[in-house]
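[agent] plan:
  1. take the single chain provided in the ticket
  2. run structure prediction with default settings
  3. attach structure tokens to the ticket
  4. add a short note for the reviewer (M.T.)
[agent] executing step 1
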Amino acid sequence: MPGSLVGVTLLRFEDGAVMVAEGRAPVVGAGGAGLATALRLSRSGRRVALVQRAAELRAGGCALTLSGLGFDAAERMGLVPALRAAQPEPVELLHVTESGRPLARMPPDLQHALLGDRPLSLFRGDIERVLRSGSARALSNCRTIRC
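[agent] step 2 finished; step 3 output follows
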């Protein structure tokens, strides 16, 4: 089958370590992109070796907005309800100069009127938590390897 991983895959790391992932598609990093990739591969029937350096999930992190293609991908993966539930309450957007002087303000009701319900703004750690918890069954055939 085109694009499938057959046989043995050797993963080599900077420190010279080598890991064998027999018949598993290697996905490096259990951040948002790695978890989403592992989820899509797993749902398509592939076995996944999820390689992660950090011992635990991050909390918080930078804020990200999913809109357009990002929202479409989350919708196709069935994650929008859980992401929406994890989204913090909207706050006023404030654009400031380099010195901190306010240039423009946009209250939450105006944001909603202009953008509707499609954009989702969350912290990186919340997106990763939703991907991991909402996908536990699909990710059950993943083997997570800490390097």
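[agent] step 4 note for reviewer: The chain has one domain: 8-146.
[agent] ticket updated
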